[in-house]
Predict the 3D structure of the following.
Amino acid sequence: MSGVAAEFRRLFGREPEGVWTAPGRINLIGEHTDYNDGFALPIALPHSLAVAAARRPDGVVRLSSRQFPDVFEAPLADLVPASVPGWAAYQAGALWALLDEGYPVSGMDLLVDSAIPTGTGLSTSAAVCCATVLAATGLHGCAPAPAEVARLAQRSENDFVGMPCGIMDQSAVMLSDQGRALFLDCRSLATEQVPFDPAAHGTSLLVVDTRAPRRLVEGAYAQRRRSCEEAARILGVRALRDVSPEELPGALAALPDDLVRRRVRHVVTENARVLETVALFREGRPRAAGPLLTASHASLRDDFEVSVPEVDTAVETALSAGALGARITGGGFGGCVIALVESGLVAECGRAVRAAFAERGFGEPVVFTALPSAGARRLS
């Protein structure tokens, strides 16, 4: 990403007026809870992207990416939902959301350079939207609060791209602190920076990018969201967050079919797992959260049905190699697995996962460790 300004000069023939950065994120626990008004516990990743930008006087936006080097060009005023194909939709959606809400943005050139692996569930899309909002408002003398940037970025995905995501990804991108996990109440949007320093407790957070292709993600994601909303309607609650673990048996008995029951059971039990994990982190006992990560994966695999064979293989192998806990992270249907691993077992765990993938004929995974990092900000 160090070359984003130079590439901007080469592509657009002038200097950028600023460069902004936004990280990817990993969710430690709390999956598919955000759009149910529940709880989540993400961290920002060291992997990030940068946006270089400069204003234009003619009302035109030109959008490009070093990873997808074609240039999208259109008058800003012509941007409407579902009108922009491919990668550029996320940047265009961020600009549309700003314009639609009365922010004084005008034409501009923007170039993205990303070191976040795409298609892995690490929220490249949220990072792009957040960085674009920051760049556009920064160029035009506005300074929305980080939580407002997250809301605008979510709106660009919901209303422009058509992805019905919750607020967790964008909040992690904007509000995370180095050395902390972000405890997020997705209803009130209250946050708490919870200490999370794996190395201090003799552990590492291992990430396995399974590189499994993520197919039918948006349709399947939307289907699960609809199931949750319908269940809340039947149960007479605002959202599934309002069903407590104690009320779960009665709630399940009131639902019409087993599929909806399983979706509800995941959300209710996942919220409880988030709260228990946060309590352990506050007490300085993150190692004890390992079984909660594993229980989360079992719930996502069996009740929410968002896992795939590559993901299950990575989880099972990491646990067999001594991981304290492991789970799928992100929306699912492929993507990444996280494992809380004794620091001395990191290399062995990575070797075991690679060997298991080779034995089953899967593509070679990418394995790395992650530390909680800072959220989005202006670089220059």
Q: What stands out?
A: The mean pLDDT is 95. The two ends are 13 Å apart (CA to CA).
